[in-house]
Amino acid sequence: MPSNTTPPDKIRIMFVCLGNICRSPLAHGVFRGLVAEAGLADRIEIASSGTGAWHIGEPADARMRQTAQKHGVSLDGLYAQQFTAEDLETFDHVFVMDKGNLHDVLFLDRDDRHGHKVRLFRELDPDPGDYQVPDPYYQGRFDHVYTLVERTARALLDRLVEEYDLRSV
Length: 169
Ligand code: 4NP
What we know:
By secondary structure, the chain is of the alpha/beta class. It has a single domain, classed as Response regulator (Rossmann fold, 3-Layer(aba) Sandwich), CATH 3.40.50.2300. The protein has six helices and four strands; from the N terminus they run βαβααβαβαα. Strands 2-1-3-4 form a four-stranded parallel β-sheet, sandwiched between helices. It is globular. Bound molecules: 4-nitrophenyl phosphate (4NP). 4-nitrophenyl phosphate binds at residues 17-23, 50, 54, 135, 137.
C-alpha cells in the first residue's frame, strides 16, 4: 500500500440487548471470533451494550459465559455498559436482539436521523423465526440462544464482506 494511502475507516458494529450480560455479549464474542478468523479485525470494530442500566460494569452472566466457552468462544474482557444516544452517532450498524430493544433504541433517536442503522439482528438469520433472540436471563435455553446467535453472526459477516467489498482488502 502506498504510504500516503489512508486505510478506510473501520466499520463500527454495535450489538444491543436489555442487560448486556447475556445475548449481546454473546453476539459480541462470537462475532469477534469470526472477524478475527477472517483476518478482518483491523476493519471491523465491535461493541455491545444494554438498554437497561442494572448490570453496568458486570461481566457476562456465568451461564452465558459457560455456554460460550463450551463452543470455544470467550467473553473475557466484556463488561456491561448502557446504550446511549451518542452511540447512534458513532456506530454504522446497531443490531438489537428483540422488539423491546428496538423500541428503546429508536426512542433515543430524537430527531429520527439514525433509524436506518438500527435493525433486529435476526433479520440476517437465514432461518429468522420471529426475528428475535429470546431473553435467556429468566427463560434459560442458553444453548438455543447460542445456536441462533452463532448462525446469525456468520450471516452478518458474509453480508458485511459483500456490502463493503472486504474480500479485496
Ligand atoms: P440480556 O438478558 O438482555 O440478554 O443481557 C437480561 C439480563 C438481565 C435482565 C434482563 C435480561 N434483568 O432484568 O436484569
